[in-house]
Write a structure and sequence with these properties.
The protein is of the alpha+beta class. It has helices spanning 5-20, 152-157, 161-167, and strands at 30-37, 44-47, 50-53, 57-63, 73-74, 103-108, 112-117, 127-132, 169-170. The chain has one domain (23-170): Cupredoxins -  blue copper proteins (Immunoglobulin-like). The protein is globular.
Length: 176
């Protein structure tokens, strides 16, 4: 197939327009992330497990799993000597164990990518990623480059920043 000059110009103009269009803007407020599990406990997850929010958003982690306790723990040296997977200027958090029905709140103010996990269920890839702001924000820090401190299953469970920004939130389907 050969391209006409008009098709090439149209394609190039469309690409330039797409690059110049702003990324989605998410208003700060409160967002709930649920900790879930199947009735028999063979599958556990955060819902949503990936989320884009504005700086200053309050996240409330709520344990909706009737059969398990869970944590929401940032990857950070202050938390069990883990390698840092949150922005350098951000404060790490650890919810401690939440029993069914309990909740924990954290406010994320520093732009960048935050990876977190459930302490007793990290091996089952109960992990999540939060994107605060956009790469255009001053002080933005992208995802951690580390590949040694987490399993291949954990890395595979963390979606890319572009996907999160495009969709806003990603949810896992419950599979029995």
């Amino acid at each position: 197939m050969s391209w006409t000059r008009r098709q090439v110009i149209r394609l190039g103009g469309g690409a330039i327009a797409a690059l110049g269009s702003p990324l989605p803007v998410f208003a700060a407020g409160e967002t709930v992330i649920e900790m879930r599990g199947t009735a028999r406990g063979e599958r556990i997850w955060f819902d949503p497990f990936a989320l884009a929010v504005a700086p200053g958003t309050v996240l409330r982690f709520v344990n909706r799993d009737p059969g398990n306790s869970h944590t929401a723990t940032a990857y950070h040296p202050e938390n069990y000597d883990r390698l840092r997977r949150i922005p350098a200027k951000a404060a790490p958090w650890d919810s401690d164990f939440l029993l069914p029905g309990e909740s924990f709140e954290v406010t994320l103010r520093v732009p960048g990518v935050y990876d977190y996990y459930c302490i007793p269920h990290e091996m089952a890839a109960m992990v999540g990623r939060i994107v605060v702001g956009t790469p255009a924000d001053p002080g933005w820090e992208g995802p951690a480059e580390d590949r040694e401190d987490v399993s291949a299953e954990v890395l595979a469970a963390l979606p890319g920043v572009e996907t999160i920004l495009a969709r806003g939130a990603l949810r896992r389907e419950e599979r029995s």
